[in-house]
Amino acid sequence: MNIDIRSPLDMHLHLREGEMLARIAPLSSMSFAGGVIMPNLKEPVDTLEKVHGYRKAIEEQCNPDEFTPYMTAFFRCYSAAELQALRSAIIGIKLYPAGITTQSEAGVSDFSGIEETISVMEELQIPLLVHGESNGFVMDREKEFLKIYERLAKNFPKLHIIMEHITTADAVEFMDKYPNISATVTLHHLFITLDDVIGGLMEPDLFCKPIAKTPRDLGALQDAVLSGHPRVMFGSDSAPHPRQKKECCGCAAGIFSAPVALPMLADFFVKRGKPELLQGFVSDIACRRYRLTPVNRTIRLSQQSWRIPELYNGVKPFGAGCEIGWKLATEKN
Amino acid sequence: MNIDIRSPLDMHLHLREGEMLARIAPLSSMSFAGGVIMPNLKEPVDTLEKVHGYRKAIEEQCNPDEFTPYMTAFFRCYSAAELQALRSAIIGIKLYPAGITTQSEAGVSDFSGIEETISVMEELQIPLLVHGESNGFVMDREKEFLKIYERLAKNFPKLHIIMEHITTADAVEFMDKYPNISATVTLHHLFITLDDVIGGLMEPDLFCKPIAKTPRDLGALQDAVLSGHPRVMFGSDSAPHPRQKKECCGCAAGIFSAPVALPMLADFFVKRGKPELLQGFVSDIACRRYRLTPVNRTIRLSQQSWRIPELYNGVKPFGAGCEIGWKLATEKN
Question: What positions are modified (N6-carboxylysine) (chains A, B) (predicted)?
Answer without folding.
Answer: 94
